[in-house]
Specification:
Strand content: 25-35%
Distance between the termini: 95 Å
Structural class: alpha+beta
Order of helices and strands: HHHHEEEEHEEEEEEHH
Shape: globular
Radius of gyration: 33 Å
Number of helices: 7
């Protein structure tokens, strides 16, 4: 480039446009707060890592989406015939039960949105067994509060069990109950609803706990002192 042509690309101060832009960039960085510089660097690094791994930012956010545990209720229902104690059991047969189908379980199920925990327990027991709950131990000591249009309830189950791995995540509130009525033979979720001797349940807990649905083992052990 000749001297005349070069002069057209140079400012009156002897600085080319490219040098001026570069100088402005340096000046901007020098005046940028430290926190902003760190955030800019982090965002650039995160985007670079995501792109290197073939993951777009939207996909990365989706991968970290939170999944929450489901609240459930269960009932240990006991009766005595003569001097022989029994507990109500059924065979698990859920549509999505997979490998848990065929296990012994107590009546239990999920709590619907805004459903009173005790109403949920009565509903699940009736749906799965045909029995009507006449007493839920701990219901009388529950506390209900209403402020405006918000209603809350506090209660103390007999046993609370949470699974920390495997299957889907649930938190089971188990209550001791009394019930009456005639047992149904089976439903779309259960089979072989029956009264089982406590002595046989103790034997299963000690020798074959894998035959009992895992969410009920701790509550039954606590109740039967196994």
């Amino acid at each position: 480039m000749d001297t005349e042509a070069r002069s057209e690309c140079t400012s009156s101060e002897g600085i080319s446009p490219m040098e001026a832009v570069y100088g402005m960039g340096i000046k901007y960085l020098l005046n940028m707060p430290i926190a902003a510089m760190m955030m800019t660097s982090f965002c650039t690094y995160q985007k670079s890592c995501n792109n290197e791994n073939g993951v777009e930012q939207g996909e990365a956010n989706h991968m970290t989406k939170e999944v929450f545990a489901k609240p459930c209720v269960g009932a240990i229902i006991k009766k005595v015939v003569g001097n022989e104690p029994y507990i109500l059991l059924q065979t698990r047969q859920k549509e999505d039960g997979n490998e848990t189908n065929g296990m012994f379980e107590i009546p239990a199920g999920k709590i619907r949105e805004y459903e009173d925990v005790f109403s949920a327990l009565r509903r699940e027991v009736w749906e799965e067994t045909g029995l009507k709950i006449t007493k839920i131990y701990g219901e009388d000591s529950s506390v209900c509060t209403q402020i405006g249009d918000v209603t809350t309830i506090s209660f103390t189950p007999y046993c609370v069990t949470q699974n920390l791995s495997g299957a889907y995540s649930i938190i089971l509130n188990t209550f001791l109950c009394e019930a009456e009525g005639d047992l149904t033979e089976s439903t779309n979720e259960t089979e072989q609803v029956h009264w089982e001797k406590v002595s046989e349940i103790k034997r299963l807990l000690e020798e074959h706990p894998e035959k009992i649905f895992f969410m009920h083992i701790n509550a039954l052990k606590k109740f039967l002192k196994v």
